[in-house]
Amino acid sequence: MDQITGDSVRVKGSDPLVSDAGDGRNHVVVIYNPKAGQRRYPLFSSVIERLKAHGVDVTILETGARGDAEAFARHARQHSLMKAENAPDAVVAAGGDGTINEVVNGMSGGDLPLAILPLGTANVLAAEIGLKVKAEAIADTIWRGPVIDAHTGDVNGHRFTLMAGVGLDADVVANVNTRVKARLGKGAYVLTTLSELASYKPHYYRVAINGHTYKAASVVVAKAHYYGGTFICAPDARLDADILHVCLFERAGRWNAVRYAANMMMGRLPSTAGYRIVQTRSVSIWAEEGAYSGDPVQADGDIVTNLPASISLPSQPLKLVVPRGGC
User: Fold this and answer.
1) 71: pLDDT strictly greater than 80
2) Whose C-alpha in 34, 197, 226, 316 is 20 to 30 A from the C-alpha of 101?
3) Residues 6 or more apart whose Cβ sits within 8 Å of residue 265
């Protein structure tokens, strides 16, 4: 299958070299996480039917365990690089932000575009690119949406599109009950946050940025401006910008954690006392106290590594399919 070609288009005044899908894509590989998509199977089914109605050849690969999505994506990328017969001209990640993250890590390198079919709890990447969680909008984007260069981050060799974090948010991700999450959705994170706050012990991390060392109780390194849905953590962060926004929650303790959360929900986090954003291209994070030296690090809502963490920007961007007139 030939690589996607077409005239360049402007998307909301951004890079004029955004590539267009021309008359539409012919063959897509859909990597589908049935666990993430259980509650939204009608949406998944409707999107697939709409794609077929557009004449798109759809290959569905269903994941059964963690790591499958990354392996499937790597296989599709290799077929594209070799220009194999019937190679896909896009990969579609159908699941939550965690499934999308796995697919992103399998597609490192090459020009095969990634499209998303959001079926998860928060669907932060969908919000970030302006993709409505409706069958018609999703199918149209997969079929003929333009492609942008999305600059991902890298934490200890693992790529992320949205954010990486350490501290309270990573502790919540590490301890959320998957069964409760399947039943309550975002409510599971609220319950886990309350549980973590009850046992919270104030401690700090060291954060090295641009030759300076900061101290923070929690750290979120953002590549996108949305967090946990449509809450705003880093208002100036954008996928198509090759810069990291390091969000420092500088004050520890239960009260400060509640204060940060409340201000985030009210859209006032960036102006909150004890909150700082520093822009950089690389950052290192480690624990100030030995008991926390191996604390978990989350990326795009999944635990992917442990401290110490080295976070940077890979040289090659991800080709990301976005809605026409969006992002």
Assistant:
1) yes
2) 197
3) 231
pLDDT-based confidence at residue 124 (cuts at 50, 70, 90)? very high
Sheet of 318-321, strands arranged across: 8-9, 18-19, 147-150, 318-321, 114-118, 90-95, 27-32, 57-62
Tell me the HSE value of 53 on the side-chain side, using a 13 A CA sphere.
Answer: 10
Closest by alpha carbon to 312, among 282, 275, 276, 272? Answer: 282
Backbone dihedral region for residue 4 (phi beyond 0: left; psi -120 to 50: alpha; all else: beta)? beta
Q: Which residue has the tokens 């965690």?
A: 98
More confident position, 120 or 322: 322
CB 69 within 8 A of CB 106: yes
Query: Model-level pTM?
Result: 0.87
User: Per-residue pLDDT for 3 more than 60?
Assistant: no
Most confident option among 84-98, 120-134, 313-327: 120-134
Which residues on adjacent β-strands are paired with residue 27?
Answer: 57
What's the farthest any 2 CA atoms get from each other in the chain? Answer: 59
213's tokens: 């060392």
Q: What are phi and psi of 93, to 5 degrees?
A: -90, 115
Q: Specify the pLDDT at position 1.
A: 31
Say which DSSP state 2 is in: P
